[in-house]
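Margin note from the TA: students keep mixing up input and output lines. Inputs are the sequences; the output is the structure of the whole complex. Example:
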Amino acid sequence: MLRAEARTRLGALELDVALEVRSGECLALAGPSGAGKTSVLRIAAGLVRPERGLVEANGETWLDTERGVDVPAERRRCGYVFQEYALFPHLSAWQNVAYPLRGMPRAQRRERSLELLGRFGLRERADARPRTLSGGERQRVAVARALARKPEVLLLDEPLSALDARTRASAARELAAVLSDVEVPALLVTHDFAEAALLGDRVGVIDAGRVVQQGTPTELAAAPRSAFVADFTGAVVLTGTARPGSGGLTSVELDGGGTVSTTDPGEGAVAVSVYPWEIAIEPGGEPRHGSTQNRLTAEVVSVTTVGNRVRVSLAGAQPIAAEITLDSAERLGLRAGARVTATWKATATRLVANRTEDP
Amino acid sequence: MRRPGGFTVLLALCLAITLTFLTLPIVAIFLDSSPADLIRSLGEPGALDALWLSLRTTGISIAIILLVGTPAAYLLATRSFRGKAFVVTLIELPLVLPPAVAGIALLAAVGPSGILGGTVESAGLELTFATAGVVVALTFVASPFYVRQAMAAFASVDRVLLDASRTLGASESRGFLRVMIPVALPGLVAGTALALGRALGEFGATLMFAGSFEGITQTVPLAIYDRFSTEFDAALALSAVLVAVSAAILLSVKLVHGSEVLGGAPR
């Protein structure tokens, strides 16, 4: 179990977080850059000392500013995977992994390192210098090195962001496997919600130094508590004013024109969110009536193929993104400048508070 | 192929002038003294003594500079404190000091009638007109070259490596020895070469502070000056030796820089 609490000013950022990660669990902190994600890791590792804070790992107190406890970084058993991996450039892969292994003969250190590297499929790269390793290999060496000391806590800072798009998918799968094997609490930070959802058992969305919502990735995506979380999880967010509508629905007058309905209750200044894959596109700009409640006319801005889907950016009164299949996109003959109608159901429309609530 | 433009011709001309001006005197030293002369004048008593003294005093002085200057440079590169810019300026000051002034300054500080003269004497140290004085003079003029370069070398090492070292259970001193020094090594070697070159060629401060006594304080540059008016050939031969030694140092540093062993990436 890792417990980390910190209240501190760091430059322009007011950090105020309290986290708990159970053993064997991975909590992924996701948020935009500058939100204070890395600072949380550095405080846990003892590389930064907060004004007020508490860090406990497996019942051992590493930091308690109230009682004046501050165990130096080198005596906290943290496996830390740095953003750019921070491998020692003058040491080979195995020597990097062996760095934390002390008080044993060289042959034994090498043996232990090779064993660890072997688990990551890197045994034959053991003598290579970091700069001759590929990005993916470097990442695995960094993880192996972090595990070499048998840490009580694993901290990972953007473990995939230094990788190119092609390596990232396989590296993510491997890392997910490693994280599910590790029996210690793991705290991971990332700016990418999809990455957080893939690697974290739970995800905490952090914004401007505060964890605004925590939950399983599905919980967050299904019930974002704020416009920020909805936007961050990938939803389309539209702002407007809510009032009770007909049939028990809530009607939201959108800023800039248009009205949408939602099954969620609410009143006043609000934001509604809908996932791009919930939005369908009909040709032509005339609103017709079907079973879908929400229909907005818009102009196609761009059409981008993402794997087997097509992401369509639309400019209406507020920007909208829709994801449809390749087939549909071809059938509709979508191109920039075309007038279309975006439609989705009131039941797929979440109503969220417009502003991040102060806890 | 396009004809080179007028500007390129101008650039090339300037390079040619620079190169000629810088290399001609050095080449002349070797053209003016035949290898036979060289070996003969080395055989002359005093010449070998001077060379041996130069190597010894430079070696000791460089050892002191490395031992004390490296941690000092590391501190300046990794910590920030009030008045740091001032401290750095003080360390750089001997760089712009005329060597004669450096000699006078050393006399005023640790000379027999200097402000710390009594302390030095009661410690049983003899500096003026003694080999130890040469070491003091060399260290004084050469150390800023090393400390400055070492500071830059440490400052350019990504600090996250030190963080990584700490999270892997190594104290800062261990990280300093096992990570910072090896990673900064190319810069440290370059600084050592600068200091070596400066110490080997030191003339003014040594002459003022330690004097010029054969076998005791007469280093190669002083020996050259000593022979200059009476035996020009001998002076020339000694100069050739000094050039050869200096060039060898420069060359070996360049070789070390590109070497795999020290982790210097072939850029």
